[in-house]
Amino acid sequence: MTISKLLIHKDVVDFPVAKHIVSRFDIPFSVVDETQTLFEQISGAKDPIQSGKEVLFLTSNKGKFLKECPGTRSYTCCGYKILHIGTFCTMDCAYCILQSYFHPPICQFFVNHDDLFAELDHYLSLEKGARIGTGEFTDSLIWGKWSDLNTRLVERFASQSRSVLELKTKTVSIAPFASLAHHRKTILSWSLNSLAVSKTEERGTASIESRLRAARTC
């Protein structure tokens, strides 16, 4: 999917991250005063899932950035922690749980990165470690074409020794990582399906072959 509408919440218009992302687009943006009308418009669209994938909404995360993974009932939890950078995805996998999890489904990217790194830095300063990933509520790498957040995260995790960053994707957008000193504290990971399922159900994703090539390169 291609982003055809860029929206910015009024509270973050002057945020440096928002301004940087706007500079990467050649389409005008609209300022959103309140979100309920926006969400109702997308929910009421003929195809709300497709409509949501074509909108990029820059806003702030007013809750916690670091969350405990809820795990799955009756399974042994692996202790994974979620770094909540945004929601939804521009790709269109038929089985994607995000399409029914978010109401409405809309691509939101949180731009209050000062708050994100303050919370992350506090956790990383504690005498414990964890696997912390950004790929629970979105694809980790789709935002790289507009934001340098992944680069900043890799560099931040490289400066400590107890936790690892996991970036999970169905893209092959690995070029920004080639020159980074990651100190083996970042894991790039790909979800894989059979060739038949990938070709028929994973619309807009990188092919299985190209994902494997990207993994080999990493």
What do these coordinates show?
- The chain has eight helices and twelve strands.
- It starts with a strand and ends with a helix.
- It has one domain: Rossmann fold (3-Layer(aba) Sandwich).
- The mean pLDDT is 92.
- The strands form three sheets. The chain has a five-stranded mixed sheet. Strands 4-5-9-10-11 form a five-stranded mixed sheet. It has a two-stranded antiparallel ribbon with strand order 7-12.
- The longest helix is centred in the middle third of the chain and has 12 residues, at 113-124.
- The protein is an alpha/beta fold and 218 residues long.
C-alpha-based Rg, rounded: 17 Å
Amino- and carboxy-terminal Cα gap = 26 Å
Q: What sequence of helices (H) and strands (E) makes up the elements?
A: EHEHHEEEEEHEHEHEEHEH
What would you call the structural class? alpha/beta
Mean pLDDT: 92
CATH class: Alpha Beta
Assembly status = single chain
Task: Give the neighbour order of strands across the main sheet.
Answer: 2-1-3-8-6
How do you describe this structure in short?
With 218 residues, the chain is α/β, with parallel strands linked by helices.
Q: Which terms would index this structure?
A:
about 220 residues; alpha/beta; Rossmann fold; five-stranded mixed beta sheet; 12 strands; globular
